[in-house]
């Protein structure tokens, strides 16, 4: 069943209104519920999960430095919408099937409000995980203007909860960004891109078994999930009517596994102005934008002088990445359409500034510690692929304990055939370089033998990042300063099937 393209309008998530706001703090309540929503006009309404009755959830907009309190409320049914594998860490029979905990991805936040995977809670907070400490999370938002997003992070079922619809944008704004006169208001639109598959009745399809089923198990985790349709803001292949002027789009790859290499079929540029952690120093004009799961790119597209044109955003990233099949241009090779059909409502005075602000570089000499960390692919007792960080399972003793205020360089040594988007909670980092090395020799001798020159980060990655693509046959080096909080956080692969099994490790920032 192939759905028609560009028949549904792009939805724009509403901005959430706080319950209370005074000069000192802002308070929100956010409910998670199950409901039906139309994801395409040719499909029956789909049962999804979402925040505040919408998928994606409403956009939360805050000011840099604003003290924000959010009570995340689980009002979901006791039975999961999707097939749960009870052999996965954190999802055994001794815990409730439906549990949630919210992580604001990219936020610098106290550990009790970070959404630790074992700080989950059920409906009405009746049952809570071993690390649960409080109902109301606190976000101090000591960050520059940037595009963050919030999503579920419950141990062992993150892939299912996010796929069911638990994701939304969280935007931090500041005065410096306002003074740049970027496109704003109706000309600034967040775009959450995800892939999904559907059953004939319109319900979400998620596999119960990998391609080679595991006979001993009724339900088994799959090594990755690759959907056959693209959705933007919860609509399959939508269209957006635009005026012939500049628009700012905040692109987010919120897929479980799929990477996107986005292009415009008109051949025109994206003017990229920001990375995960906010504005870059200078904008760059690029013909394509590469986004691994969880990565964001802040871009301006100029539709001036394109009256009457239709422009399609396409994707040609192989799935799984980088060794998988190229996407079919008729299905997942298409993302959405822009129609330059609205009349110009006012003169476009917005600009693409030549300079966006200073970006101090972290110096390698300032690092007090270097860590060598492997990305590993082994097999479990059922012969399934088992992805690990540094050869360790989730519940092995903590081995990464950076000191508050210290700078570290992490060497991510990829011994697998996949590119892994590695996300580190609490901090933003800078990418130093990537370098090819001899994987087989490393496996035998545990020594890095480089086989090529150091490759600097791509122009589109030269900013603050919280998620980095660690490519196969390469060592990826990142540098970061740990703080301003101490306590327990996690780092993991953001391919959600890998994170759940069990490519995620705790780390603790110590005084």
UniProtKB/TrEMBL annotation:
SUPFAM superfamilies with a match to the protein in the record: Cupredoxins (SSF49503)
Pfam family membership, one: Cu-oxidase
InterPro entries: Cu-oxidase-like_N (IPR011707), Cu-oxidase_2nd (IPR001117), Cu-oxidase_C (IPR011706), Cu-oxidase_fam (IPR045087), Cupredoxin (IPR008972)
Domain Plastocyanin-like: 45-93, 99-176, 226-315, 385-509
Domain of life: Bacteria
Protein family (similarity comment): Belongs to the multicopper oxidase family.
UniProt-recorded name of the protein: Multicopper oxidase domain-containing protein
